[in-house]
Amino acid sequence: MKIGFVSRFGLIRALSAESIFRKYAKLGLISAEVYSAGVEECDKSCDTLVEVLLELGFEVDGLKVRHIEEIPYDRLDILITLAPEARDRCPYLQSHKRREHWNVDEVSILSRDNIKKTIKSIEANVKNLLRI
């Protein structure tokens, strides 16, 4: 299974979703290739996100901000959009067996508390998707 999480910039929301999904897929013995990306270019990184993910017990190895053109979009089985910009700009493809939009607010102020709130929201959605 190939799953992709796409947000506006592929930074906070998409990277969080990738990390969270990897953890729960591993715990559930689910074999999956997990990708995250943004529909807009982003040359930023967020060290605070990495710190918070590690603090909450999520893996960060291999997490990298990517543009949607850098992932195998046309081979994804599941596409999850995390921002209205992603939902509106990600083309519908027949190869996508499932497509969902999770309404996750953009983190406007990069504080630890705001990042944790976003992570908890995404974690709840991932658990629901995996029926945990």
Written description of the protein model:
By secondary structure, the chain is of the alpha/beta class. Helices cover 38% and strands 15% of the residues. The protein has a four-stranded parallel beta sheet. The radius of gyration is 13 Å and the shape is globular.
List the helices and strands and how they pair.
Blueprint: E1 2-7, H1 12-27, E2 33-38, H2 47-55, E3 78-81, H3 84-89, E4 98-101, H4 112-130
Parallel strand pairs: 1-2, 1-3, 3-4
Helix pairs in contact: 1-4, 2-4
User: Given the structure, what is the number of helices?
Assistant: 4
What integer is the average pLDDT? 93
* DSSP helix fraction: 25-40%
Strand element count: 4
Distance between the termini: 18 Å
State the major sheet.
4 strands, parallel
Main sheet: strand order? 2-1-3-4
List the helices and strands in order. EHEHEHEH
Shape: globular
Point out poorly predicted stretches: none
The amount of beta strand, in percent, is 15-25%
Radius of gyration, rounded? 13 Å
In short:
This protein is α/β, with parallel strands linked by helices and 132 residues long.
What labels describe this entry?
single chain; alpha/beta; 4 strands; 4 helices; 132 residues
